[in-house]
């Protein structure tokens, strides 16, 4: 092993739904370099979304090489690695060969809807709610694991014999990059599996029994900020670098946005939209379709969050670009939207994989409303962008009731919030100031902070909170009557979507 230099950077790996990023941060929390790579999305059947775990690993490895090459930073200067990931997505692999036995079943995938229906019919809803803070939905990992075990020949027997391992993407990556094939996850990722008791903080035997998942498959659950393993020098430039921070990407963004006080909230506008509010050491139970989840465990303190998960947000813009070929690039949507003063009464409900929070209806489909002969592409694009803001309002309204407070400011991040039209419309429709930070890569930054705290690169959360800086604030300026009239139209559109049952077996 080569000599370790005085480490000056933290490397963050952000493994997202559509792309992987590797980023280097310096001591000020500033971005020193970034590399990003998209990887294939697999849609084997309508409503199914899968990834090849090898593609994920390859994209991560190549972005690490690229960021170090671009910045000319030697791996010897990396103090620690923070890992953050698309959550819930499930991988099952052979502990001896390291080969995944099936594709990664992605969080958006609906292939386990039938298993969920069986669980609901079996009366498991309250057990799940009470133990995990979640509800029975194909979104979470547990039914995806069961589905893989049921659909791969001999998998149940191999799992029972202890030959197979399960992991969310953080576990898959750490197992592959670490020196001794360490099989771990952190509390925030565990809390999205539907198998983890968020109050007692352990895998729940009743839930494992519910789906016949052997405990021997599961990773060890650790805090979000500690040294879990060191990189394998053979595949990491001769360096044993501590992997020292792990969190699911939405919790990492909450950390990176320095939302450390109860009542502070962030919304991430990526593939989906995820609005999380810190509720401190209290696990707040939602009565309005939100999730109670573990935010992180740092310095021996476990904190919780309320979450509204919106399944389709930036991916609706991607659909405009790739599916309908209405756009050449996603950012172009901004100028189209601004070319018209309104959608002219057009609404788009992008329920392409059903609806998540606060509706939780996996059986519904997307729809367009209010079309006339005068409807143009500009109206259509604007309606899609506005749908991100309306979905966020649905969630935030529910959250304010659940948490019993009125939010004054919301911190925003994610690729789509680069869109200034969307950011302003969001502030208008919520009647809340939206703050966009200087470092918009808050997911990666959060993971970097978690790792940096564990290795002494940063001292405290107070220091991190001081580093958070606003780049631009969007203040509400819409007339209240217009705001409520627009939102009432959205509510009607959603009700219509909920009422429409598509006929079965039509091809
Ligand atoms: N300027 C923009 N306006 C609207 N949507 C955008 C813009 N830039 C990116 N997007 C959308 O945001 C998503 C990418 O955001 P990102 O945070 O990278 O997502 P993820 O981490 O989920 O892969 C894509 O779905 C893309 O269509
Ligand atoms: O990959 P993202 O950023 O869209 O995040 C996905 C979420 O973690 C799914 O719960």
TrEMBL record:
TM regions (residue ranges): none
Catalytic activity, EC: 2.7.1.30
UniProt binding sites for sn-glycerol 3-phosphate: 17, 87-88, 139, 249
All residue ranges annotated as the Carbohydrate kinase FGGY C-terminal domain in the record: 266-454
Metabolic or biological pathway, per its Swiss-Prot or TrEMBL entry: Polyol metabolism; glycerol degradation via glycerol kinase pathway; sn-glycerol 3-phosphate from glycerol: step 1/1
GO molecular function: ATP binding; glycerol kinase activity
Binding site for ATP: 17-19, 271, 314, 318, 415
GO cellular component: cytosol
Keyword Transferase appears in the UniProt entry: yes
Domain Carbohydrate kinase FGGY N-terminal: start-end pairs: 9-256
Pfam hit, one: FGGY_C
GO biological process: glycerol catabolic process; glycerol-3-phosphate metabolic process
SUPFAM superfamilies: Actin-like ATPase domain
Keywords, alphabetical: ATP-binding, Glycerol metabolism, Kinase, Nucleotide-binding, Transferase
Residues reported to bind glycerol: 87-88, 139, 249-250
EC category name: transferase
Activation and inhibition: Inhibited by fructose 1,6-bisphosphate (FBP).
Family: Belongs to the FGGY kinase family.
Function: Key enzyme in the regulation of glycerol uptake and metabolism. Catalyzes the phosphorylation of glycerol to yield sn-glycerol 3-phosphate.
PANTHER family for this protein: GLYCEROL KINASE, SUGAR KINASE
Official protein name in the record: Glycerol kinase
Source organism (scientific name): Dyella monticola
């Amino acid at each position: 092993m080569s000599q370790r230099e005085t480490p000056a950077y933290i490397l963050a790996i952000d493994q997202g739904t559509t792309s992987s990023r590797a980023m280097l941060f310096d001591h000020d929390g500033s971005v020193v370099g970034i590399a990003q790579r998209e990887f294939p999305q697999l849609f084997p059947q309508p409503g199914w979304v899968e990834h090849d775990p090898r593609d994920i690993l390859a994209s991560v490895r190549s972005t690490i090489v690229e960021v170090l090459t671009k910045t000319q930073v030697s791996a010897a200067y990396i103090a620690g690695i923070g890992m953050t990931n698309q959550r819930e997505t499930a991988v099952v692999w052979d502990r001896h060969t390291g080969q995944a036995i099936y594709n990664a079943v992605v969080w958006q995938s609906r292939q386990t809807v039938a298993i969920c229906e069986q669980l609901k019919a079996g009366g498991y809803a309250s057990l799940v709610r009470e133990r995990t803070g979640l509800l029975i939905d194909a979104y979470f990992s547990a039914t995806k694991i069961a589905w893989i075990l049921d659909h791969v020949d001999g998998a149940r027997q191999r799992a029972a014999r202890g030959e197979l391992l399960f992991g969310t993407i953080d576990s898959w990556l750490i197992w592959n990059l670490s020196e001794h094939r360490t099989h771990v996850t952190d509390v925030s990722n565990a809390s999205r599996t539907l198998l983890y008791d968020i109050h007692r903080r352990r895998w729940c035997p009743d839930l494992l029994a519910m789906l016949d998942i052997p405990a021997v498959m599961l990773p060890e659950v650790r805090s979000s900020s500690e040294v879990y393993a060191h990189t394998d020098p053979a595949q990491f430039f001769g360096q044993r670098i501590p992997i020292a921070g792990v969190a699911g990407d939405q919790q990492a963004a909450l950390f990176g946005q320095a939302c450390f006080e109860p009542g502070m909230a962030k919304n991430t506008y990526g593939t989906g939209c995820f609005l999380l509010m810190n509720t401190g050491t209290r696990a707040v139970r939602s009565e309005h379709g939100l999730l109670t989840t573990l935010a992180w465990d740092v310095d021996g303190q476990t904190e919780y969050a309320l979450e509204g998960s919106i399944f389709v947000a930036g991916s609706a813009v991607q659909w405009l670009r790739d599916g309908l070929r209405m756009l050449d690039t996603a950012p172009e949507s901004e100028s189209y939207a601004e070319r018209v003063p309104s959608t002219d009464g057009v609404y788009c409900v992008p329920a392409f994989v059903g609806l998540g929070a606060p509706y939780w209806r996996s059986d519904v489909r997307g729809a367009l409303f209010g079309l006339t002969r005068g409807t143009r592409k500009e109206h259509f694009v604007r309606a899609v962008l506005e749908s991100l803001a309306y979905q966020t309002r649905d969630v935030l309204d529910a959250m304010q009731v659940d948490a019993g407070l009125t939010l004054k400011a919301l911190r925003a991040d994610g690729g789509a919030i680069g869109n200034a039209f969307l950011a302003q419309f969001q502030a208008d429709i919520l009647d809340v100031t939206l703050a966009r930070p200087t470092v918009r890569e808050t997911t990666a930054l959060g993971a970097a902070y978690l790792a940096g705290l564990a290795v002494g690169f940063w001292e405290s959360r107070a220091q991190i909170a001081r580093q958070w800086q606003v780049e631009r604030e969007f203040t509400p300026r819409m007339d209240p009557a217009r705001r409520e009239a627009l939102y009432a139209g959205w509510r009607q559109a959603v009700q219509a979507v909920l009422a429409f049952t598509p006929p079965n077996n039509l091809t």
